[in-house]
Amino acid sequence: MCNKSTGLWLPLAIPTFRSMTVLPDFHSFTIPLLDGGVLSFESLRGKFTLVVNVASECGFTPQYRQLQELYANHHDQVQIIGLPCNDFGGQEPGTPEEILSFCDQRYQVTFPLTEKVNITTEPVHPMIQWLTLQQYNGVQDYPVKWNFTKFLISPEGVWMGGYGCTISPFDDNILDKLGLTTS
């Protein structure tokens, strides 16, 4: 549902941030998936979560391969969530079907892909606000500057770090926080 006074996209179950006196819980969010389902972030509780804004026509698009490898090898420890976004250079212009087909055929992606999200244009999804603004995540501001920005969330729903587009999903800092060896 889009709140006409604020322009923010708000799921029916989540109050607006302006009315909240406590920080929102990462696991309280829901978001539609490209395949027609709905992802409840409550299902992510107990695992690390790497949230990544993705695009099919970006120079960093090959990171899909690394994200899929990380997910395939460690899905028992870390969940990858791809957030298609067309806000940066118009590099995700496809329909849901086109995005799913591209990701499947080119990179055999099996991790969840959400509906397209707005990051720099209205309405911005509250989960994006939580990822990028200290006033909501309680830890740090981390603005998204381009596609394939990554956010690491603890199994308890605590914001652990933001990583720019040039940082590989296999970066030692990410792997160390996940407790994965880099041997």
User: Poorly predicted ranges (pLDDT <50, ≥5 residues)?
Assistant: 1-21
Name the strands of the widest sheet in spatial order.
4-3-5-6
Number of strands: 6
Beginning-to-end CA distance, first to last residue: 46 Å
Radius of gyration: 15 Å
| SSE string, helices as H and strands as E | EEEHEHHHEEH
The secondary-structure class comes to alpha+beta
Largest sheet: 4 strands, mixed
* Spatial shape: globular
Number of helices: 5
> Which range best describes the helical content: under 10%, 10-25%, 25-40%, 40-55%, 55-70% or over 70%?
10-25%
- Output mean pLDDT: 89
Strand content: 15-25%
Task: Please give a structural write-up.
The protein has 183 residues and is an alpha+beta fold. Helices cover 23% and strands 16% of the residues. The chain is globular and about 40 Å long.
SSE blueprint:
Blueprint: E1 30-32, E2 38-40, E3 48-54, H1 63-74, E4 78-84, H2 96-107, H3 126-132, H4 134-137, E5 150-153, E6 159-163, H5 172-178
